[in-house]
Amino acid sequence: MSSKKISIELTEQELSYLISCGAALLQNIPEESLQTYCSFSKEQIIEFIVRLRGVAEEHGM
User: Fold this and answer.
1) Is residue 6 part of a domain?
2) Are the beta carbons of 29 and 37 closer than 8 angstroms?
3) Do the domain assignments include residue 4?
4) What domain range includes position 48?
5) What is the pLDDT of residues 12-53, one digit of tens each?
6) Do 11 and 30 meet the contact criterion of CB atoms below 8 Å apart?
7) N or C: which end of the chain has fewer CB within 10 A?
8) Model pTM greater than 0.85?
């Protein structure tokens, strides 16, 4: 399945929020429920958080 890419602008606070929420999902929702809760698997959430952290680091956050 191919994913369509969309470019958006975020404030530093918004980027921090997204990173925190992804990590919070992994800490507070059982792994077997993640796909139902947010349509992302544990591996997809980790991949997303890593990409977001990379963006944050590029901007000195």
Assistant:
1) no
2) yes
3) no
4) 12-27+35-59
5) 999 999 999 988 888 889 988 988 888 889 999 999 999 999
6) no
7) N
8) no
